[in-house]
Structure to design on (506 residues):
């Protein structure tokens, strides 16, 4: 296995970001609940303690015994992690009176200390805490302060343990990556975990695990399932069969384009057109959750039917990625989301699961895809919901509404590519509203449909902001859609952020 850093999660919103930063430094890390440190793992090189929404003084704060890891591994406590190190060693942590949030600058900085090597006084850091350390235990030594915070960074003198009161993982901390890199050097990490090394070790593991067994994989056309298919294909070749179900709710001409892309990569794919089944079962249904359930169940039924035509299938491949795994391992012990591309299939089909991407973040999946030489239109494709246009048509679904939305969306996405805007946003799509409005075309009054254009910027879809697309672009798209898509006479642009809105409308 790879050498690794363990990040113990005390519930901070930025814990995943710490993980991504460590991975960007070509070092493998795992995020685990604060009280689930793996004993006797020879690959562990160091430990990071995350922030938390709690105060260490709260009765319900997350607390754990650190005696088994202190002095055994290098440790870096971040925010709550730093306060907890002080608190659990009989230091004092008290309310700062005012929540300290935002930019600050390090002073009295000891850059002879290995954690702060190459970092200069005055560097900007990002604070976000309601408590502050007011009394350090005897063996703790301050190695950096800010104007308002005396204990901004400390080192425990008789061990390789540090704490920082700020967040090195966030963009606004100027030398945050440098500090994390220094910590990895302290841990003796070789920093050789790259997309190429991941591919090599994963393909070897897949060959050893699967042997001559046959695997079936549901493809969606999205980046996760596509990269999963290529890795499995590289490992087991002809023993992989992929099934791509067209539920009639894909983007315009998408089925053909995606099938061609897979064929060119030498992947064996069975394409199933199941429009009539899905349109029939969705007829007259308007409730979004009901639509999702019908589409999800319909997908499982079609997939299961196709799978039963094959012999000796032992494994089900899935494109599960690391944020899905982390969310299903919530630190409170409750499952936040059960995230499987084809939820319900493993139980129904009595298959074992193989999930080659379950250790990767989304941006890493894309890097692996590029390393595998996959076409860019699959790698850089925006996220697209499993129920497809079914949840972008508000109200009931008809073949006519699907065609209308496909045509409008095709113009929008094609023009985004022409204007070089597609790769600058996280996700874009078109929504068809169940609202008609009066318009004028030629000399005639019209009473037709409204479509909404949606585009957001994000890094992980947990939060998202509406994309500030150029007015000239929006004007041209609106004009094209109204002139070319029969049945649409009004185009609007959604300027809501997440939260409080969601990226999709249903």
């Amino acid at each position: 296995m790879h050498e690794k850093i363990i990040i113990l999660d005390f519930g901070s919103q930025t814990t995943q970001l710490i993980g991504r930063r460590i991975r960007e430094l070509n070092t493998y890390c795992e995020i685990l609940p604060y009280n689930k440190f793996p004993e006797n793992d020879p690959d562990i090189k160091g430990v990071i303690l995350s922030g938390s929404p709690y105060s260490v003084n709260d009765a319900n704060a997350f607390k754990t015994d650190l005696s088994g890891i202190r002095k055994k591994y290098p440790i870096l406590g971040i925010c709550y992690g730093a306060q907890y190190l002080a608190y659990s060693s009989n230091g004092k942590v008290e309310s700062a009176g005012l929540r300290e949030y935002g930019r600050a600058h390090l002073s009295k900085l000891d850059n002879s200390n290995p954690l702060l090597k190459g970092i200069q006084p005055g560097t900007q850091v990002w604070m976000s805490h309601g408590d502050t350390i007011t009394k350090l235990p005897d063996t703790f030594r301050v190695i950096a302060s800010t104007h308002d915070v005396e204990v901004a960074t400390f080192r425990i003198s008789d061990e390789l343990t540090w704490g920082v009161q700020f967040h090195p993982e966030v963009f606004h901390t100027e030398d945050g990556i440098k500090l994390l890199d220094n910590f990895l050097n302290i841990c003796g990490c070789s920093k050789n975990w790259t997309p190429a090394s991941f591919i090599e070790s994963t393909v070897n593991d897949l060959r050893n695990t699967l042997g001559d067994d046959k695997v079936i994989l549901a493809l969606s056309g999205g980046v996760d399932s596509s990269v999963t298919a290529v890795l499995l294909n590289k490992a087991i070749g002809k023993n992989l069969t992929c099934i791509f179900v067209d539920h009639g709710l894909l983007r315009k001409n998408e089925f053909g384009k995606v099938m061609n892309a897979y064929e060119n990569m030498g992947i064996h794919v069975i394409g199933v057109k199941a429009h009539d089944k899905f349109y029939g079962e969705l007829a007259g249904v308007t409730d979004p959750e009901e639509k999702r359930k019908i589409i999800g169940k319909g997908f499982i039924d079609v997939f299961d039917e196709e799978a039963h035509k094959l012999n000796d299938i032992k494994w089900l491949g899935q494109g599960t990625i690391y944020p899905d795994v982390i969310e299903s391992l919530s630190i409170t012990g409750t499952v936040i989301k059960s995230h499987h591309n084809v939820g319900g299939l493993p139980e129904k089909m009595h298959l074992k699961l193989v999930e080659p991407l379950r250790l990767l973040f989304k941006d890493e999946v894309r890097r692996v895809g590029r390393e595998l030489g996959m076409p860019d239109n699959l790698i850089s494709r925006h996220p697209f919901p499993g129920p497809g246009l079914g949840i972008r048509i508000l109200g009931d679904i008809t073949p006519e509404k699907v065609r209308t939305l496909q045509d409008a969306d095709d113009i929008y996405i094609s023009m985004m590519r022409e204007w070089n805007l597609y790769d600058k946003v996280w996700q874009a799509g078109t929504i068809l509203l169940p609202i008609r409005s009066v318009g004028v075309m030629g000399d005639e009054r019209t009473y037709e449909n409204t479509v909404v254009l949606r585009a957001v910027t994000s890094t992980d879809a947990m939060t998202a902001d509406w994309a500030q697309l150029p007015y000239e672009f929006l004007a041209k798209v609106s004009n094209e859609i109204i002139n070319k898509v029969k049945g649409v006479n009004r185009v609007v642009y959604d300027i809501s952020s997440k939260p409080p809105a969601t990226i999709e409308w249903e």
Residues 288-307 form the longest helix (20 residues).
